[in-house]
Amino acid sequence: MPRANVASNYTQDQLDAIWDQLKAQVSPFVYVLCIEGPLYRVLDDGAKQFIAKQFMEQVTERVMYCRDGTDGDRYFLGSPRFFLAGSGMIVHALHTKEAIWVKRPDDGIQHILVVPPALPKKCAKIPRPPNAYILYRSDRHRFVKASQPGIHNNEISQILGRAWNLESEAIRAKYKQRADAIKAELIKRHPEYKYRPRRPSERRRRRIAEQTEEAEDALADIVVDASQAVPVAARADEADPEPTDEAPASDDEATAPTAETPVPTVEAS
Predict the structure, then answer these.
(1) pLDDT value of position 232
(2) Residues of CATH 1.10.30.10 domain(s) within the chain?
(3) Which CATH class is domain 127-197+245-269?
(4) Which part of the chain is the HMG box domain (predicted)?
(5) Mean pLDDT, consecutive 10-residue segments, the chain of 269 residues?
């Protein structure tokens, strides 16, 4: 991945890890990314600029950030033309320059919309630092994708998981050293950081959401003729199901997943 030519308090590896999570949403039919509110609020201006530049390379259009003013704690990144299409419109929060996407009223009356500024949550969640395997997978993901177009992300994880388990101690030690450096930098910037695993109820909701998306994708494959498809601002969650948040017992024992084992991932929400 190219080096970030931006001024950010995040390291390059941290920026790459954040983008690796977001780019799972990218496809030829997605022109708007969705970023959860807790993650967006911990990003500094340099990190937001880095993410915007990476996404612009995918869509080849100018992009902007805006808050979702309809429902949920999330932000969008995309071309302004998609935010103004159909019943959408952009307004600004009172006394701020924050752009907010809302739906136009359908009563035929012109309204002056005053939207209160977004109030940050009491405790914004800090992105979890990647372990050795996550960094290894990040470095090699695009090469596997390029060599096997159309391959599913879960299959890529299985391939790289087997490769990681067969790697030499020297290679594994190199990635362990990188992971330790990233974690040390995060602790330095956020001394209060402590990893908090997802509660069982949260994991169940994620599994249900993933199963629903898989069913919708399967139906779309049946009814959509790809030769007639028109790029639209598809839902931002149209990504391959995310791996679970389960990680190895320790970074020293960072064993990659196989076809039967969930893939560790970076906590960014």
Answers:
(1) 41
(2) 127-197+245-269
(3) mainly alpha
(4) 126-194
(5) 69 88 82 88 90 88 87 85 78 75 66 51 70 90 87 89 93 92 85 76 66 52 41 43 45 51 46
154-174 burial by CB neighbour count: b if 16+ within 10 A, else e?
eebbbbbbeebeeeeeeebee
Residues 173 and 91: their CA atoms lie apart, in Å, by: 50
In Å, how far are 69, 202, 222 from 151, measured between CA atoms? 35, 28, 19
92 burial (CB, 10 Å; 0-12 / 13-18 / 19+) is middle
* 165, two tokens: 């388990």
